[in-house]
């Protein structure tokens, strides 16, 4: 028993030091693999030690390969980052230049058309007021609407597409009691919508917009309604109570004259371009005046003129008009607000899908 144990120990030591001879020894008939203890139990073969040694060697090789892979990945990442930084410098300059050119072109178009349109609207407003004509200011509004529409059409950097669903209200000079609602992404929204929107509607807008030279001045003559917010923070959708009360009263007067009103029920622009929660003012107004609500949606203007960006960008936008909603079918105001918002979200998805199609076509045309 002792001799056999010593033999095993010696063999194991020999295998550890000179493992290259183990394979030859294991082929002999008197190898330790055939030895046994006096009680007949088999001894552990030297190949067990060889297996352990090979396993250790394999782990070391795997660790070395892993370290080499990490080094290669780090080098590749560094090279990729350098390439991105090198390539991003030039496009950034090009994009900034394009945005600057787009803004300059738009400014020239708008002001070159707004200035004569402003004086025409002033003259029209005073003449109609003296003779008691144009009570809903439809004729006076045309100077503002047409000049803005032409400014967008003449801008080669912008592409505005308009879609109407089958049951959307048709354009009519006798517009009727309609309240148009739409999601709000950008200051570009009224400009883009107006370029494809022929209805003589009165727009509810932030009071500071009425101070824009010529364009804002004409909004007074058109009969648009200013609304004052509590703060200038884009996240704050609260309005001054008295301003909101006056706004609803003026909207009510216009609707009673069968003149439509256009409202952004979110209150403010959406930074994420997702449809925000709706304020209830437009829907209370619809209930009181028995006016139909016409849902609309726009997508793309958030990229043309993003929030917190002073320069406009080249781009495309899609405007979609849906079917009117009858508020008399709703007993609960919250249900009306929720359903109207769902309609706008669905239309926004449709506008987004159409916007993507246009973009894919333009990219394919650019490649060809």
From TrEMBL:
The chain crosses the membrane at residues 100-119. The keyword Transmembrane helix applies. It comes from the Eukaryota. This is Phospholipid/glycerol acyltransferase domain-containing protein. GO terms for molecular function: 1-acylglycerol-3-phosphate O-acyltransferase activity. One of its GO terms (cellular component) is endoplasmic reticulum. Residues 1-48 are annotated as: Disordered. One of its GO terms (biological process) is phosphatidic acid biosynthetic process. Residues 29-48 have a biased composition (Low complexity). Signal peptide: none annotated. Residues 178-301 form the Phospholipid/glycerol acyltransferase domain. The keyword Protein biosynthesis does not apply. It comes from Naegleria lovaniensis (Amoeba). Keywords: Acyltransferase, Membrane, Transferase, Transmembrane, Transmembrane helix. CDD domains: LPLAT_AGPAT-like.
């Amino acid at each position: 028993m002792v001799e056999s144990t010593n033999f095993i120990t010696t063999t194991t030591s020999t295998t550890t030091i000179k493992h290259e001879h183990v394979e030859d020894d294991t082929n002999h008939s008197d190898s330790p693999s055939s030895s046994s203890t006096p009680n007949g139990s088999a001894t552990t073969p030297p190949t067990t030690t060889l297996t352990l040694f090979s396993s250790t060697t394999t782990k070391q090789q795997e660790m070395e390969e892993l370290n080499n892979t990490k080094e290669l990945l780090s080098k590749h990442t560094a090279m990729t980052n350098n390439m991105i930084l090198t390539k991003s410098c030039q496009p950034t300059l090009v994009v900034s230049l394009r945005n600057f050119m787009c803004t300059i072109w738009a400014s020239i178009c708008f002001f070159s058309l707004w200035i004569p349109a402003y004086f025409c609207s002033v003259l029209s407003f005073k003449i109609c007021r003296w003779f008691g004509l144009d009570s809903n200011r439809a004729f006076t509004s045309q100077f503002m609407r047409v000049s803005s529409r032409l400014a967008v059409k003449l801008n080669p950097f912008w592409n505005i597409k308009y879609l109407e669903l089958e049951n959307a209200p048709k354009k009519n000079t006798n517009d009727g009691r309609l309240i148009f609602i739409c999601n709000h992404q950008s200051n570009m929204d009224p400009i883009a919508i107006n370029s494809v929107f022929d209805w003589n509607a009165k727009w509810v807008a932030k009071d500071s917009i009425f101070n824009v030279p010529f364009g804002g001045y004409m909004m007074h003559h058109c009969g648009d309604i200013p609304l004052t917010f509590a703060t200038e923070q884009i996240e704050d959708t609260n309005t001054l109570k008295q301003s909101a009360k006056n706004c609803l009263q003026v909207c009510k007067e216009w609707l009673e004259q069968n003149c439509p009103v256009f409202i952004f029920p979110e209150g403010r622009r959406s930074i994420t371009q997702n449809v925000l929660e709706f304020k209830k003012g437009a829907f209370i107004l619809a209930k009181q005046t028995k006016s139909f609500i016409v849902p609309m949606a726009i997508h793309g203007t958030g990229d043309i003129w993003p929030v917190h960006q002073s320069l406009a960008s080249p781009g495309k936008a899609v405007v979609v008009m849906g079917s009117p909603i009858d508020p008399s079918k709703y007993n609960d105001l919250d249900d009306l607000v929720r359903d109207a918002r769902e309609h706008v979200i669905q239309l926004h998805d449709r506008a987004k899908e159409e916007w993507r199609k246009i973009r894919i076509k333009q990219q394919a045309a650019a490649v060809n």
